[in-house]
Write a structure and sequence with these properties.
Blueprint (H helix, E strand, L loop, with lengths): L3 E2 L2 E2 L1 E2 L5 E2 L2 H14 L23 H19 L5 E4 L11 E4 L1 H5 L7 E4 L2 E4 H7 L4 H9 L5 H4 L5 H12 L5 H10 L10 H8 L3 H17 L1
Antiparallel strand pairs: 1-2, 3-4, 5-6, 7-8
Length: 224
């Protein structure tokens, strides 16, 4: 009879050595990613709030929940192509949110591959962030915060496309000077767009300072 460790039967290798089965190694690494700050993957898991359900802290429960489906997946795809995957990439490790997946399925389920619909066309988050010159991190943060549609890609390149009503909704994030510049620059009150020179005279500042305030305003809104 094989040796028992951690309540499970150890596998026997060809050279007679004993080792823990794949499901135990998977369970152990899952916890390491979520709780061990010295583990290489911690920043992508525990570091951003991903944790393990209370039930799965007990190996036997994890085994009972996942071993049968793992064995089926192993028979179909093999050991190298069987790994634990969270269905919702921003959700925790638990029975309801986990499955066994192939490498291709894993790659298609990363945060960078979140699917977003823009003008009735589907884009991966990574491609859309490049299209609008917004970092993947900023775009991902907006997705996780529940923002949708224009709120996701709002930025200087799109301010004209979405018009004044959208700008008005975001003015409260800015101080008085930046609000005033946008109001004059894009005619948010009277639909008359003023020049940098005109605004400079009104505010008693240089043309370049007006440009700086305009750019600063949109940088702030992009981070909102």
């Amino acid at each position: 009879m094989g040796k028992i460790k951690h309540g499970i039967l150890l596998n026997t290798t060809k050279n007679g050595k004993r080792k823990l089965p794949k499901i135990y190694t998977t369970w152990s690494m899952m916890k390491q990613r979520c709780f061990n700050k010295n583990q290489n993957g911690y920043k992508r898991y525990g570091g951003r709030g991903i944790t393990v359900s209370k039930e799965w802290l007990d190996f036997k429960t994890f085994y009972d929940d996942m071993n049968e489906s793992m064995e089926e997946h192993l028979k179909k795809y093999g050991k190298k192509n069987t790994s634990l995957d969270r269905i919702n990439n921003n959700g925790n490790y638990c029975k309801e949110n986990c499955r066994w997946a192939t490498r291709k399925e894993q790659c298609n389920n990363t945060r960078a591959n979140v699917i977003i619909t823009y003008k009735n066309k589907k884009y991966r988050l990574k491609k859309l962030s490049k299209k609008f010159n917004i970092s993947k991190g900023t775009m991902g943060k907006r997705v996780r915060s529940g923002l949708v549609n224009e709120e996701l890609w709002f930025g200087s390149k799109l301010r004209k496309s979405y018009g004044n009503d959208f700008l008005k909704d975001y003015l409260h994030f800015l101080n008085f000077s930046r609000q005033t510049v946008l109001i004059y620059r894009y005619g948010l009150k009277d639909n008359v767009c003023r020049t940098l020179e005109y605004i400079g005279v009104r505010l008693d500042i240089t043309r370049e300072r007006v440009r700086q305030l305009e750019n600063d305003a949109f940088k702030i809104l992009q981070k909102t």
